[in-house]
Design goal:
The complex is a heterodimer of chains A (438) and B (988). Chain A has 438 residues and is α+β, with helices and mostly antiparallel strands. Chain A is 14% helix and 33% strand. Chain B is elongated and about 125 Å long. Classes of the chains: A alpha+beta (438), B mainly beta (988). Strand 8 of chain A pairs parallel with strand 45 of chain B, so a sheet runs across the interface.
C-alpha cells in the first residue's frame, strides 16, 4: 500500500542495461541466410455476411448467400547463399491454435468440424476441408544467386478454394455454433522451408493470417439485429457507404458497410534528392537509361540498376492510387470503459532487408510521414570476388521490401544494384554514408 | 617457582613481583554479557537500552586454578615478558573467554599464560547483589630474577586478592562519586580521557598517579631489600571521560592511563596544592583490536530469525562500497540481486513483499539508483535489523521480511564530523551537543550525500565507448538526514528527525537519426517525531508521529512524435503508539497502534493504443492524443497489535502476538475532475493475524527455536485502481513456519541453522478477462487474487566471532633474517597479532508460484536461487591496516529459453517457441570482492584511505540472457566487471 510494487528504479536499471548491452547478433534487416520475409494473399481479406454465422446451418433458406472464395498465396522466401534445392510444407491452420501451429492435428480437427447430418455430404465436406488443411509439401528448384543476389525461391505460389463447408469449419466451433463476433476470424497460412544444403540456419517457419471479416450491414439481416447491436455493444449501423469527401480520421458515430481490404500496389521507386553532377552516374533497367545528378527518375518495383561503390541511394516508393484505403476500427474508450468506433486511413509500413550495405529496418507513414528509404550501397571490395577482373559481371547487392497496410494487405518491392569498382579518384570515406556520391 | 600469583601493589613499578594478581578492575564497570550482546532496538529498552550502570557489590574471588608454567625454552633463552589478558568470567564463575590484551612478545609465554588462566575458577561476581558475568584484566608476569622467598603463599594470594577486590570496589565507589577515594585535600588534578581521532570520551580508564616518596637519608638504595617508597593513587574515568584527584602531593609525578584495547599511556605532570592541574589525554586505540565488522544474531531477544548489525560493524565489509545496508545481502535468506543489487529478495519473495522502515517509518526505497548506495548515510545509522521471516506483530503490511534501519542515537559529548569522498559520491556527517544555559542539552546532527557520476559517465562514455553515439545518461542522487534529540527530564527522550532522498535519471540521445529522451525521478521526504518515556511500574511509553511526501515521475519523448509520462505522488502521515509493561523477568507485555495515512495522486498520460481489432499490426497505432488516467483519494491503514513475552525460566521463552489490520479508501470529492475513475465502492480490507515464537535452551550452548504466523499485505493504490487494477482485490497472504537451532561450537564459532516453509495464497495475478456489462460497457478485470506460491528452504550461518591470533612466528622469522642489529623493537608491535572475524552463510531454497488456471502447475519464480553461499572474512592487521574479502557462489536465476521461433509475417516479429517456463537457469554466479584500508589516527582527527574492489578476478557473470531476433542465438548480459571504488574517509 505504501510501497511501490516494484522497485522501479532497479527495474529501470536492468532495462537500461539490457537495452545498452552489446551483442554480435545478425540484424533482422540483414539478408544473410534462409528467410521467409513475406506472403501475399489474394484477396487480402474475405468478407462474409453476418447472416452466415448468426443463422444456424439447418435454417439456411433458399437463396441464402453462401460464400465461396479462391485464394492465392505467394510466398517470398530467400537464401542469398543459394540452394541446389529446397523443401517446403504449406498448411492452412484455423484460428484458435497456438501461433506456431506446430501441434495442430488437422485430421482430428477436420473430424470435429463435420456438421452435416447426411453421410454423403459428410464425406464431401471431409474431402473439401481436408484438402485445404492437409499440409502441402513441395521440392523447389535450385536457387541461382548469380542471377538474383537475394537467392529468391521460386514455385512459391499456392491456390486454395474456401468452399461453404470450409467457411463453416473455420467460423464455427466443434458444436457447430459460430455465435456473433465482431472481430475477424484469422486462419493462417503456415510455411516450413528447408534448405538442406545449408550448414546452419537450414529452416524457417513463418505464417500469415487471412482475415475472415464480418459485414454487419447486410440488409438481409433480420429486423432487430441493429437494435441488439446497440443494446449489447453500443454500436450503431450507418446503413450507407461513407462519403469519400467527408470521411475524416477520428471518432465515428456509426458503422459503415464494410468493404474488402485490397492488397496495396507499388509501382516503382522515385530517386530523389540527387545532387548536381554532370557525369552520368546511374543506369537503370534494360536497356540502361542513364540518370544524371539533379534529375528525378522512376524505376519499377523490381528493378535492376547500376551504381557507384558505396553510393547512397535515396529512394521513395511510389504506391498506386487507392493503395491507402479508408476503414473503420473498433476502439476502447478507457474513461468510459466502452466500445467506440474510429475512422481511419491505412498507414503503410515497409520492412527493408539488404544483402549488403545498410538500410533502416522499417520506414512508415505514421511516425516518419514518408516511406522514403536511404540505402547505402556496399563498397565494391566488400562484395566482389577476390579474383574479380575487368570484364567479369559486376557484383550485385539487393534491397527487398515488404509493404504492409497493417490490415492483412501486402506487396513486395525489390531493387538490385550492380556495384561498380571503386573509383581511385574518390576516397572511400567520401563515397560513404553522407558523402552523397553516386 | 614460576607462575604463582603474588602481591604486587606494594612493589615498585620497576620490580614487579613474579606472577600475581594484577587485578586491574578497570573493566568491571558492566557485566560482560551486556558488552557482548548487541544493542537492542528502541522497543526493547528494558533489555538492552543503556540502563543505570549496575553496581559491583561483590568482585569475583579466585578459588582455584593451575599455575602458569614457565616454558623451558623461554627460560633457556632468558626470555621474559608480561602478558595482559582480558578474562570473561560467567555468572557461574567459570572462565568463558580469554583474550590477549597485550602480548609478551613471545608466543610461548602468551600461550602458557592463557593456558593457565583457562583453568581458573572464581566465586562469581555480583552486581546489585546478583551473580553476573564480569570481565577483568589479568597480568601474567614471566621474570627470571625470582626471589623464591618473595613468592606468596596461597593464603597470601587470597589475602591479596581480597585486598585488591576491596580496593577495586572502593575505587569503583570513588569513581562513581567522582573522585579517587575519600577526598583528602584540595581537588588539584582533573582531566578528560578521549579516544584519539574520534575524540569520544572514554569511560573506565584506569588513571594512576605514581607518587615517589622521599628516600630517608642514609638509606642504602643498593641494598637488595630496599624498596622505593611509592604510593599509587588510582581512579577511573566516568562516562564523560572525566577523572579527579584530591590532594595529590606537590611535585612531579607520573600519571598512567590504561584501558583495554587502547595503548597504555603516561605523562609526567607537576602538581601543586595552589593550582589545579588539568589535562586532556588522547589514547590511541590498539588498531588490531578494532574489529569493526561482525555479524550478530540477537540471542536474548524474542525473534527467531532476526539479525542485527551495528554501524561500526558493517562499514568495512568488502563489496558493499562501505554502505551498511548492503551488508544484509551477505546474510542467509537474502538472494543475490542482479547487477549492483538493490532488490531485497527475502526468502524467495517478491521484493515488494518486504517492508522497509527507517526508524519505524515506511519508506519506498532503500537504495539509490542502481543499488550502489543506500538512502541512509552510513554515519547516521545506529543499527540495522533484518528479519528474513517470523517477525512479531509490531510489523505489519509485509508478507516476507522486514528491514528496519535505526537512526543514530545522538550521544555525542562533543562535536564530531565525518566525511567520505569517493569516485561515486561525497558525503558528510556533523553533529554534537548544543548547550544553552538554562535549557536542557540538545544534541543535533546532520548528514548529506550527493553523487557526481552524472558528470563522470558521459566522460567515461566518450573515452571508453565512443560508439555509444551521444547517449547521455545522467543519474543523480542525493539524500540528507537531520536530527535533534533532547532529554528534558530523567527517563524522557524527545527527538525530531527529518530525512529524504532523491533520484533523478535523464537519458538523452539519438539513434538512427531519431532523437529521444527519457527521464525518471523518485523522491521521498519524512519528518519524524519521537517521545519515549519511562513510567513507574515498569511501563515504557513510546509515541512517534510522522509526516512525509513521496513522488515518482517518469517521462519520455523524442523526435518520433511520441511522448508521455507517468506520475504518482502522495502525502503520508502516521503515528505509532506503544505501551510496554515489564511486570517481572518472567512476564512482559506490549500493546500498540500503528496508523498510516496516504493521499493517492496517480496520473498517467500516455498514447495508449485503443484499437481492439484482432488483426495484429507491425506497430501499434499511436493515437493523436494521449490518454490520461488519474486517480485521487486517500488511503487509510490502521493496525493494532498486542504481544506477550513469557519467560518462566532462563531456558524457555515464548512470545505470542496478534495483529489486526484495517485498510480502506476515502474519496476526496472536491479534487475530482470529470472523467476520472475513482475507487468508491470497494469493500474494507481487514485481517487478524496471529503469530508466535518460542525458544528453548536444551543444553548449555544449544537452543531450539521456532516461529509461525500469518502475514498480509494490502494491494497498492495502482492495484486497486479500476483502470490499472481491480478495486475488489483482497490482501495477499503468507503463512510462515520456521524452526531452527543455535549451537555454540567453540569459543569463537557459533552455528545457526534454520528451516522454513512459507505458503502464499491470494497472490495478485494479471488477467486478460473482460466483463461485458452491456450497452457497450466493458470492464477489464486486470488483476485477480488467484495466485499461489510457496518457499521451502534451509539457512546455515557459521560465524567466527572476533578473535585475535598472534603472528609472532612472523616476527621471529623477520628477526632471524634481519639480525639483531637491524631489528627494531617497534616491529614487535607490528608482528604481535592480527584480529580476524568472518562468517559463512549458506541458503538452500526453492520458491515456486502457480498462476495456472487449474492451480495445479507450480513453476519457479524469477527470484529463485537454489544455492547461495557467501563467505566473508576480515583481517585487522597492525599499523591500522584492514583487509577484507567476500566470495559469493550463487545459483543462476531461472530463465526461459526459446527453442526456435516462428516468423509472424503480419507483425514481422519472430515468435519464440519457449521451453517450459523457467526450466533452465543462468550460469552459476561467483565473484570475489576485496577491500583494504588504512586508518591514520591523530589526536584530533583521523583519516582512512580505502580501496573497495568489486569482482577482483573480473568474472564474466551472466545477469540475463539476450536472444537474437529469431531466437536461434543467445548471449549473456554481463554483470558488473572489475570495478574499483577508492576514496578517503575523514573523521574529527
Amino acid at each position: 500500500m505504501l510501497r511501490p510494487r516494484l522497485p522501479r528504479l532497479v527495474a529501470l536499471a536492468g532495462m537500461l542495461a539490457a537495452l545498452t548491452a552489446c551483442n554480435n547478433f545478425d540484424q533482422q534487416n540483414q539478408l544473410n541466410d534462409l528467410r521467409i520475409l513475406g506472403m501475399v494473399t489474394e484477396p487480402a481479406e474475405i468478407l462474409y455476411s453476418a447472416l452466415y454465422t448468426t443463422i444456424p446451418i439447418e435454417d439456411r433458406f433458399p437463396g441464402f448467400p453462401l460464400p465461396e472464395y479462391d485464394v492465392n498465396v505467394t510466398v517470398y522466401a530467400f537464401d542469398p547463399r543459394g540452394a541446389p534445392g529446397a523443401n517446403s510444407t504449406m498448411q492452412l491452420c484455423p484460428d484458435g491454435q497456438d501461433a506456431s501451429c506446430i501441434d495442430f492435428d488437422h485430421a482430428e480437427w477436420v473430424e470435429s468440424r463435420i456438421f452435416s447430418e447426411d453421410p454423403a455430404q459428410q464425406e464431401e465436406d471431409r474431402a473439401a476441408i481436408g484438402a485445404l488443411l492437409t499440409p502441402q509439401s513441395r521440392e523447389h528448384d535450385a536457387v541461382d544467386r548469380a542471377a538474383d543476389p537475394t537467392g529468391q525461391f521460386v514455385q512459391m505460389s499456392y491456390d486454395y478454394t474456401f468452399t461453404v463447408p470450409v467457411m463453416d469449419a473455420l467460423l464455427r466451433n466443434r458444436d457447430g455454433v459460430a455465435g456473433f463476433d465482431i472481430f475477424p476470424s484469422l486462419p493462417r497460412f503456415v510455411m516450413d522451408l528447408e534448405n538442406p544444403s545449408a550448414f546452419d540456419v537450414r529452416t524457417e517457419r513463418a505464417f500469415k493470417r487471412l482475415p475472415l471479416g464480418l459485414d454487419l450491414n447486410d440488409p438481409a439481416l433480420p429486423p432487430g439485429f441493429a437494435d441488439a447491436l446497440v443494446q449489447v455493444l453500443g454500436l450503431k449501423l450507418c446503413g450507407e457507404d461513407p462519403n469519400p469527401d467527408t470521411f475524416v480520421e477520428g471518432p465515428a458515430d456509426c458503422l459503415f458497410p464494410k468493404t474488402t481490404n485490397q492488397n496495396p500496389i507499388v509501382v516503382g521507386f522515385d530517386f530523389y534528392d540527387a545532387q548536381a553532377e554532370e557525369e552520368a552516374f546511374l543506369e537503370t533497367g534494360i536497356p540502361p537509361v542513364p540518370i544524371h545528378f539533379g534529375t528525378r527518375a522512376t524505376i519499377g518495383a523490381t528493378a535492376t540498376i547500376r551504381a557507384h561503390s558505396g553510393a547512397r541511394l535515396n529512394l521513395r516508393p511510389i504506391l498506386a492510387p487507392g493503395a491507402v484505403e479508408a476503414y473503420q476500427v473498433y476502439t476502447f474508450d478507457i474513461d468510459n470503459q466502452s466500445i467506440t468506433l474510429e475512422n481511419r486511413y491505412e498507414d503503410p509500413i515497409i520492412s527493408w532487408y539488404t544483402t549488403a550495405g545498410s538500410a533502416p529496418g522499417q520506414t512508415q507513414t505514421q511516425l516518419q510521414s514518408s516511406l522514403d528509404v536511404v540505402w547505402t550501397l556496399p563498397f565494391f571490395d566488400d562484395i566482389a570476388p577476390e579474383d574479380w577482373a575487368d570484364g567479369d559481371p559486376l557484383p550485385r547487392a539487393a534491397l527487398f521490401g515488404m509493404l504492409r497496410d497493417q490490415r492483412g494487405g501486402a506487396a513486395p518491392i525489390k531493387i538490385i544494384v550492380e556495384v561498380r569498382p571503386d573509383d581511385p579518384d574518390i576516397p572511400k570515406e567520401a563515397a560513404g554514408p553522407g558523402g552523397g556520391l553516386f | 617457582m614460576e607462575g604463582r600469583c603474588g602481591g604486587m601493589r606494594r612493589a615498585s613499578l620497576k620490580r614487579l613481583v613474579v606472577i600475581g594478581w594484577c587485578a586491574l578492575w578497570a573493566t568491571v564497570s558492566a557485566p560482560a554479557s551486556a558488552q557482548l550482546e548487541p544493542q537492542a532496538t528502541q522497543f526493547d529498552q528494558e533489555e538492552a537500552k543503556p540502563k543505570k550502570r549496575p553496581k559491583l557489590t561483590k568482585p569475583p574471588q579466585f578459588i582455584e586454578g593451575e599455575e602458569a608454567v614457565y616454558p623451558p625454552q623461554a627460560r633457556a633463552e632468558s626470555r621474559e615478558g608480561d602478558v595482559v589478558m582480558r578474562i570473561d568470567i560467567d555468572a557461574d564463575g567459570l572462565v568463558s573467554r580469554v583474550a590477549i590484551v597485550k602480548s609478551s612478545g613471545f608466543a610461548d609465554l602468551d600461550v602458557a599464560a592463557m593456558g593457565a588462566v583457562t583453568t581458573f575458577v572464581f566465586v562469581p561476581a555480583e552486581f546489585d547483589h546478583k551473580p553476573a558475568p564480569v570481565a577483568i584484566e589479568y597480568r601474567q608476569v614471566f621474570q627470571l630474577d625470582v626471589v623464591v622467598e618473595e613468592v606468596a603463599t596461597d593464603e597470601a594470594i587470597k589475602a591479596e586478592e581480597e585486598r585488591n577486590a576491596q580496593a577495586a570496589l572502593d575505587e569503583m565507589v570513588a569513581a562513581e562519586t567522582g573522585g579517587a577515594g575519600p577526598a583528602k585535600g584540595p581537588l588539584n588534578f582533573e582531566g578528560i580521557v578521549r579516544e584519539a581521532g574520534s575524540k569520544e570520551a572514554l569511560e573506565g580508564v584506569e588513571v594512576t598517579v605514581v607518587i615517589e616518596g622521599a628516600i630517608p637519608e642514609g638509606t642504602d638504595i643498593n641494598d637488595p631489600n630496599f624498596e622505593y617508597p611509592i604510593e599509587e593513587r588510582t581512579t577511573f574515568s566516568d562516562a564523560e571521560g572525566r577523572f579527579f584527584f584530591y590532594g595529590v602531593p606537590e611535585g612531579t609525578h607520573r600519571v598512567s592511563f590504561g584501558l583495554a584495547e587502547f595503548e597504555p599511556s603516561f605523562v609526567e605532570e607537576s602538581f601543586s596544592f595552589k593550582e589545579r592541574t588539568e589535562v586532556i589525554v588522547y589514547l590511541d586505540p590498539l588498531v588490531s583490536n578494532r574489529l569493526e565488522t561482525v555479524v550478530r544474531e540477537k540471542k536474548a531477544r524474542k525473534e527467531v530469525a532476526k539479525v542485527q548489525l551495528t554501524r561500526e560493524e558493517v562499514r568495512k565489509v568488502p563489496g558493499t562500497f562501505g554502505d551498511p545496508l548492503r551488508v544484509i545481502e551477505n546474510l542467509p535468506g537474502l538472494a543475490r540481486a542482479p547487477f549492483a543489487g538493490g532488490a531485497l529478495i527475502v526468502r524467495g519473495a517478491n521484493p515488494a513483499d518486504t517492508g522497509i522502515y527507517f526508524d519505524g517509518v515506511p519508506i519506498p526505497i532503500v537504495y539509490h539508483f542502481g543499488g550502489l548506495k543506500s538512502v541512509v548515510n552510513a554515519e547516521f545509522l545506529e543499527t540495522l535489523d533484518f528479519y528474513p521471516g517470523g517477525f512479531g506483530a509490531y510489523y505489519g503490511r509485509a508478507t516476507a521480511g522486514i528491514v528496519d534501519v535505526s537512526s543514530r542515537e545522538l550521544k555525542m559529548k562533543s562535536f564530531r564530523g565525518f566525511t567520505d569522498v569517493s569516485v561515486i559520491d561525497t558525503s558528510f556527517f556533523f553533529g554534537g551537543p548544543v548547550e544553552i544555559e538554562g535549557f536542557p542539552k540538545v544534541t543535533v546532527a546532520a548528514a548529506a550525500r550527493r553523487s557526481y557520476i552524472d558528470a563522470l559517465i558521459p566522460l567515461a562514455l566518450d573515452i571508453f565507448v565512443p560508439e555509444a553515439g551521444g547517449i547521455i545518461a545522467a543519474p543523480v542522487y542525493w539524500d540528507y538526514q537531520l536530527k535533534a534529540s533532547i532529554e528534558p527530564w530523567t527517563g524522557q527522550t524527545l527527538s525530531l528527525f527529518m530525512f529524504g532522498s532523491d533520484d533523478d535519471l535523464s537519458v538523452v540521445g539519438a539513434t538512427g537519426g531519431t532523437e529521444f529522451n527519457f527521464g525518471v525521478k523518485q523522491s521521498f521526504h519524512r519528518i519524524v517525531g519521537r517521545w519515549t518515556s519511562k513510567l513507574p511500574g515498569g511501563l515504557t511509553h513510546f509515541f512517534q508521529p510522522f509526516v512525509g511526501i513521496d513522488g515518482t515521475d517518469l517521462g519520455f519523448g523524442g523526435s518520433f512524435g511520441l511522448e508521455g509520462g507517468l506520475g504518482s505522488g502522495s502525502r503520508n502521515w502516521g503515528v505509532r503508539d506503544e505501551l510496554r509493561w515489564r511486570a517481572s523477568d518472567a512476564l512482559e507485555a506490549a500493546v500498540g497502534i500503528d496508523y498510516l495515512g496516504q493521499t493517492q495522486d496517480f496520473s498517467l498520460e500516455f498514447p495508449i493504443p485503443n484499437e481492439i481489432t484482432a488483426f495484429p499490426r507491425v506497430q501499434f497505432r499511436i493515437p493523436d492524443e494521449n490518454t490520461a488516467i488519474a486517480a485521487q483519494g486517500q488511503q487509510h491503514a490502521f493496525g493494532t497489535y498486542a504481544e506477550g513475552i513469557f519467560q518462566p525460566t532462563e531456558w524457555f521463552k515464548i512470545v505470542p502476538s496478534v495483529r489486526f489490520d484495517l485498510a480502506y479508501f476515502v474519496i476526496d470529492e472536491e479534487e475530482l475532475d470529470a472523467g476520472e475513475n475513482l475507487i468508491s465502492d470497494r469493500p474494507l480490507l481487514w485481517s487478524v493475524d496471529p503469530r508466535i515464537t518460542g525458544r528453548l535452551t536444551v543444553l548449555p550452548g544449544t537452543t531450539l527455536k521456532g516461529a509461525m504466523g500469518v502475514y498480509r499485505q494490502p494491494p497498492t493504490a495502482q492495484d486497486l485502481n479500476s483502470n490499472t487494477g481491480n478495486p475488489y482485490l483482497v490482501m495477499p497472504r503468507a503463512w510462515q513456519f520456521i524452526g531452527g537451532v543455535e549451537q555454540s561450537l567453540t569459543q569463537y564459532l557459533n552455528l545457526d541453522v534454520q528451516m522454513y516453509f512459507t505458503g502464499r495464497d491470494l497472490l495478485l495475478q494479471g488477467t486478460n478477462e473482460l466483463i461485458n456489462e452491456g450497452n457497450g460497457k466493458i470492464r477489464p478485470v486486470n488483476l485477480t487474487n488467484q495466485g499461489l506460491g510457496r518457499t521451502l528452504g534451509a539457512e546455515f550461518l557459521l560465524r567466527h566471532e572476533i578473535g585475535k591470533y598472534p603472528i609472532t612466528f612472523l616476527r621471529d622469522w623477520y628477526k632471524a633474517i634481519l639480525g639483531p642489529d637491524l631489528y627494531f623493537g617497534y616491529l614487535d608491535k607490528i608482528f604481535s597479532e592480527v584480529g580476524a572475524f568472518g562468517w559463512i552463510a549458506y541458503t538452500l531454497s526453492r520458491t515456486e508460484i502457480d498462476t495456472s488456471e487449474n492451480r495445479d502447475s507450480f513453476i519457479l519464480t524469477q527470484f529463485d536461487q537454489t544455492h547461495i553461499l557467501t563467505l566473508v572474512g576480515q583481517l585487522n592487521l597492525p599499523l591500522g591496516f584492514t583487509f577484507g574479502g567476500r566470495f559469493r557462489l550463487v545459483s543462476g536465476n531461472p530463465a526461459t529459453l526459446p527453442v526456435g521461433s516462428v516468423h509472424d509475417l503480419d507483425t514481422t516479429s519472430y515468435n519464440a517457441l519457449p521451453q517450459p517456463a523457467r526450466s533452465t537457469r543462468l550460469p552459476t554466479f561467483h565473484q570475489l570482492d576485496f577491500r583494504i584500508d588504512r586508518k591514520f589516527v591523530f589526536d584530533n582527527f583521523s583519516f582512512t584511505p580505502y580501496l573497495d574492489l568489486l569482482n577482483v578476478y573480473n568474472q564474466v557473470n551472466a545477469e540475463q540472457y539476450q536472444i537474437d531476433y529469431r531466437a536461434r542465438e543467445r548471449e549473456i548480459i554481463q554483470g558488473l566487471p572489475i570495478l574499483p571504488n577508492f576514496g578517503l574517509q575523514g573523521e574529527f
